[in-house]
TrEMBL record:
Organism classification: Bacteria, Bacillati, Bacillota, Clostridia, Eubacteriales
Listed name of the protein: Wadjet protein JetD C-terminal domain-containing protein
The species this protein was found in: Desulfosporosinus lacus DSM 15449
Entries under InterPro entries matching the protein: DUF3322 (IPR024537), JetD_C (IPR024534), UCP028408 (IPR014544)
Transmembrane domains' residue ranges: none
Residue stretches making up the DUF3322 domain: 11-193
Domain Wadjet protein JetD C-terminal, first and last residues per copy: 214-388
Length: 393
């Protein structure tokens, strides 16, 4: 038989696509007009009938052998009479007809999955009828969650009964549910909680699952070092502080350096009335909630690459007085032997760079000196760092 004509495997594959799309499970839960399902067959053209008569006969016989007429389930064949002047009148299959849902599930060998889906959908809808639309939209996810649904429903009920409780995730007392169960399913729980909870119980602008639903979030920690020995706290120079407490701290410093690299922060040169904040990367956004930074001289030192300038631009969005440190063409060109490749450069438009910074960024984006040129901040000679800082003192 020619592979250009539909066989029983091809028919099953077309039906499987309906299954994969969720359409069959949707119809199983909410019966509609999906069945009987007609599937057009790839079949011989009228001009081929006489020339391939024997082959066409074998094709029809093969289709019949796997049809419901022979097996008791599956597809039926819809035929159309074709009249040919040489071969006469012939009935050719034009469609495979799947009569019922039962035929479809058995043909796909999905009877157990169908029964399981109905059982899980009933379980969910009994407790949360409002999730009916979600179930219909995501039938395969319902199946994939499987036995975990009882735990998921317990979590949903707890959140509904304890709106914006202010507890840490570890403190939630849900029988049979541990913290890890929730942490591993935050994406799914977010979708479902957004549906079942009253709108006033959800903070859609919150950056984390915990804050969105009124839990206590793990504090964001900011690490800093005092660069003036006279300002050490009882001999301590290196501190890690929750950002909320940092906002109230107000240290005695007139200059604040921000650098991404941890080692750079640890070995940053001493300078009077100054401190360095380090290790945040793109997380510098947390410093937006530290109001006293607006009153300080701010210097940002990052990698000389497209992402380094993107972070500098980000810093200036809330600290417009920030100046770059060691992020210029002279430094880049004097360290050519230490260049590496930036694998995934950023081409985001930046609006807060100086003219010189913009020119350097454009040269990097346009590969003026080579593909993806990048100078990591920790590769810059320490002598250059000291000299740059001393010029500011």
């Amino acid at each position: 038989m020619s592979i250009k004509w539909s066989d029983s495997l091809w028919i099953r594959e077309q039906l499987r696509r309906k299954w994969d799309s969720g359409r069959i499970l949707q119809s199983l839960l909410m019966p509609d007009e999906l069945f009987p399902l007609r599937i057009p067959l790839k079949r011989p053209q009228r001009s081929e009938v006489n020339e391939n008569f024997a082959e066409i006969s074998r094709w029809i016989k093969s289709l019949k052998k796997q049809s419901k007429q022979e097996t008791g389930f599956g597809y039926e064949l819809v035929k159309k009479e074709i009249v040919h002047r040489q071969s006469g009148r012939n009935l050719l299959p034009t469609h495979a007809l799947i009569p019922t849902m039962k035929d479809a599930l058995r043909l796909l060998r999905k009877e157990q999955e169908g029964d399981k889906f109905l059982e899980l959908a009933r379980l969910i809808r009994e407790e949360w009828p409002v999730l009916q639309e979600w179930i219909l939209k995501h039938p395969h996810r319902v199946l994939a969650v499987g036995a975990d649904w009882r735990g998921i429903l317990a979590v949903l009920s707890w959140f509904f009964s304890h709106l914006r409780c202010g507890l840490y995730l570890r403190q939630l007392d849900i029988p049979g549910i541990n913290t890890k169960f929730i942490e591993q399913r935050k994406g799914l729980l977010t979708e479902l909680l957004n549906i079942i909870l009253p709108e006033e119980a959800i903070d859609h602008s919150a950056p984390s699952f915990e804050l969105r639903y009124g839990l206590q979030a793990k504090p964001v920690q900011v690490r800093l070092r005092f660069l003036d020995r006279q300002h050490y706290l009882q001999g301590i120079s290196d501190l890690t502080i929750p950002v909320e407490q940092l906002a109230e701290f107000k240290p005695p410093a007139s200059k604040v350096f921000i650098t991404e690299n941890e080692i750079n922060g640890l070995c940053f040169p001493d300078i009077k009335e100054a401190l360095v904040i380090f290790g945040l990367g793109y997380g510098v956004e947390v410093l937006k909630s530290v109001p006293w930074l607006k009153e300080k001289e701010i210097y940002y030192w990052g990698d000389i690459d497209t992402h380094g300038f993107a972070i500098l631009d980000q810093v200036r969005s809330f600290l417009p007085q920030a100046r770059s440190l060691l992020m210029n063409e002279r430094i880049l060109m004097s360290h050519q032997h230490l260049w590496v490749i930036e694998e995934k450069p950023s081409f985001t438009q930046l609006n807060r760079l100086t003219a010189d910074e913009n020119r350097l960024l454009s040269s990097l984006q346009n590969n003026t000196w080579g593909q993806g040129v990048r100078l990591e901040q920790e590769r810059i000679s320490f002598q250059e760092v000291k000299e740059a800082v001393e010029r500011l003192d």
